[in-house]
């Protein structure tokens, strides 16, 4: 099938793309939602990762796939387990994005990196049902420790750009999931955190994966405090380099 892959920058959405291609699907476009206010980096959204928003633009060239983006104009209005369409809900921004892509490119399915969030899964499936599309979520309800190891083994280079839980602080920002895997495992045993960050414990930005034709290199970043226990990296400057010789 021809697939639109929803990308946030996180390792889960990138790994789900890899899994989709392994199942014989073709990624024909990337889709991303971002805060409408250009001064807002981190949005209080139940649906979308927005930290790292300024670097998503590099994904189109890195993957050689067109990227479509839509501003988030709505907010979490319908919080029920079953989604009821509400034009003011942030879910409808995704509906508008996919309809805009549909005008340019034919596609049959939407790929997302949902692992345990029923909130996200139900809403993506609602949109797919309304548009006659299939939802591809190959990571759904996978064992998170096994999944984290698979993502690392697949050569995904994802760096932590937000921390928001006990056991993680600003000293962990900028480290890769491979570097943090032992610590994440310990924190899961001690505090019960989700090692893949599915509970919002941390968020990542993928700098490289097997599907990338070029890799991203983080040139400059800045730590931003969002309270006493929440910090994120503002990705101020990145560059794309050829994966064969490291040249821009």
UniProtKB/TrEMBL annotation:
<dbReference type="InterPro" id="IPR014729">
    <property type="entry name" value="Rossmann-like_a/b/a_fold"/>
</dbReference>
<keyword id="KW-0067">ATP-binding</keyword>
<dbReference type="Pfam" id="PF01902">
    <property type="entry name" value="Diphthami_syn_2"/>
</dbReference>
<feature type="domain" description="Diphthamide synthase">
    <location>
        <begin position="1"/>
        <end position="234"/>
    </location>
</feature>
<comment type="similarity">
    <text>Belongs to the Diphthine--ammonia ligase family.</text>
</comment>
<keyword id="KW-0436">Ligase</keyword>
<comment type="function">
    <text>Amidase that catalyzes the last step of diphthamide biosynthesis using ammonium and ATP.</text>
</comment>
<protein>
    <recommendedName>
        <fullName>Diphthine--ammonia ligase</fullName>
        <ecNumber>6.3.1.14</ecNumber>
    </recommendedName>
</protein>
<dbReference type="InterPro" id="IPR002761">
    <property type="entry name" value="Diphthami_syn_dom"/>
</dbReference>
<keyword id="KW-0547">Nucleotide-binding</keyword>
<dbReference type="GO" id="GO:0017178">
    <property type="term" value="F:diphthine-ammonia ligase activity"/>
</dbReference>
<comment type="pathway">
    <text>Protein modification; peptidyl-diphthamide biosynthesis.</text>
</comment>
<dbReference type="GO" id="GO:0017183">
    <property type="term" value="P:protein histidyl modification to diphthamide"/>
</dbReference>
<dbReference type="InterPro" id="IPR030662">
    <property type="entry name" value="DPH6/MJ0570"/>
</dbReference>
<dbReference type="GO" id="GO:0005524">
    <property type="term" value="F:ATP binding"/>
</dbReference>
